[in-house]
Amino acid sequence: MNMPISEELIAEANASELAALEDDYGSLGRKLERRGIGLAAVTRRVSEFSVAVPSWGAGRGGTRFAKFPIPGEPTNIHEKLEDCAVINQLGRTTPRVSPHFPWDKVSDYGALREETAALGLGFDAVNSNTFQDQPGQRHSYSTGSLASGIKATRDQAVEHNIECIRIGEQLGAKDLTVWVGDGTNFPGQQDLARSLDRYLDSAAQIYKALPDDWRMLIEHKMFEPAFYSTVISDWGSSILAAQELGPKAKCLIDLGHHAPNVNIEQIVARLHRFGKLGGFHFNDSKYGDDDLDAGSINPHQLFLVFNELVEAELNPREGFRPAYMIDQSHNVTDPIESMLSSAETITACYAKALLVDRSMLHIAQEVNDPMLAFRTLRAAYDLDVTPIVAMARFQAGGAIDTIKTYRASHWRARKAQERAPVGLGAGIV
Ligand code: LRH
Ligand code: MN
């Protein structure tokens, strides 16, 4: 494997951090021992955790107003994979990349799979795109895609999704994520029931094309780009569609796709209860689908989501294999730093959820002692688990301080010498 960052540089950086890490790790171990928890076992569980990075997150993102590129940002899938390899080499929790088509289209997917493996990476869920028109496209998605009132447009969208499955098979992926922006901006613009029926008919054709061991992950979103109604607007529409389609159809929760203050952790529990919890797009938001760094605004919510996931791990439903992926838009940071930071925050929330005294929690719930139940959860949330996450990373060959080591590598400055400048523009990519 050709690792992008020199192992010597990582070893040198770790050498100055290790003593402090061992001291913090030791004292946390003593604290957990007093709670009857073995630190080594938790560290092992944490080292088995991983989350996929979005290929589109390797570049700077933007809004409808503007995008501010940085020198040395990736300009194609090959450069995006290089940067994803940097994130995995330093952080050791992101061994898979979730690609998006046609943004990541190439002529030889076999070669792309080998190139990716040589970087120590694999592929997670593939994403289709029927929310933008491509040059030379026959039917515009301005009227929608899978739910469009125009049959030729629906057929084109179905065809594209099936093409994504075929590409994904060559890349070794096992999931297709389907998010459509289909909806309306005016009351009356489309019949709300017939729109869903058209979506279900199109989705059923995609479902039929899924290989036996594949899943279709339906991603709901409350609004944007449509601002009056969205065909798959919430978890209710998503689970009904997934139940209608069949066992290979599951629901994907993008944390930013809900109204402010929606209890997302309860949606996790509900989808799991009915065996339809398929995966996540982790990010954070304060207002809309802000695609901010995971846990940067509301880390407690992310912890509560993982609290439900650990409960789900303890009570698995058939086919329980949630796909964990990041989906963020890095408008003001170096994308590599944001994904290093987000992967650590997500892993830390999982670690905290593992440290909840579940028997105490369940007793408190049984005896209706809300304060004891809340304090039991909070006791885990208040723990500083960074020594666990850093030790797991260090033991896997990663950097103890990922961002400090990344900056010491001067990766971005080096890439600014090699890579073509990215043009000004607007939009997410
Ligand atoms: C839609 C979404 C979806 C992706 C896109 C890049 O808001 O979350 O998951 O296809 O962002
Ligand atoms: Mn998403």
Description of the structure:
By secondary structure, this protein is an alpha/beta fold. About 45% of the residues lie in helices and about 10% in strands. The protein contains 16 helices and 11 strands. The protein has helices spanning about 5-15, 20-35, 40-45, 75-90, 110-120, 150-170, 190-210, 235-245, 265-275, 300-315, 335-355, 360-365, 370-380, 385-395, 400-410, 410-420; strands at about 55, 95-100, 120-125, 125, 175-180, 185, 215-220, 230, 250-255, 275-280, 325. The mean pLDDT is about 95.
Features:
three-stranded parallel β-sheet; binds manganese (II) ion; binds 6-deoxy-beta-L-fructofuranose; single chain; six-stranded parallel β-sheet; 429 residues; alpha/beta
Q: Give the SSE string.
A: HHHEHEHEEHEEHEEHEHEHEHHHHHH
Q: Hey, roughly how much beta strand do the residues contain?
A: 5-15%
Strand order of the largest sheet: 4-5-7-9-10-11
Helical fraction equals 40-55%
The helix/strand class is: alpha/beta
Radius of gyration: 22 Å
Please give the number of β-strands. Answer: 11
User: Residue ranges: pLDDT <50 for 5 or more in a row?
Assistant: none
Bound molecules: 6-deoxy-beta-L-fructofuranose, manganese (II) ion
Q: What is the overall shape? A: globular
The total of helices stands at 16
Protein topology:
Layout (H helix, E strand, L loop, with lengths): L6 H9 L2 H17 L4 H9 L5 E2 L22 H15 L4 E3 L10 H10 L3 E2 L2 E2 L23 H21 L3 E4 L4 E2 L7 H17 L6 E5 L9 E2 L4 H11 L3 E6 L9 H10 L3 E6 L16 H16 L8 E4 L8 H20 L3 H9 L3 H12 L4 H10 L6 H8 L1 H8 L11
Parallel strand pairs: 1-2, 2-3, 4-5, 5-7, 7-9, 9-10, 10-11
Antiparallel strand pairs: 6-8
Helix pairs in contact: 1-15, 2-14, 3-11, 3-14, 4-11, 6-7, 9-10, 10-11, 12-13
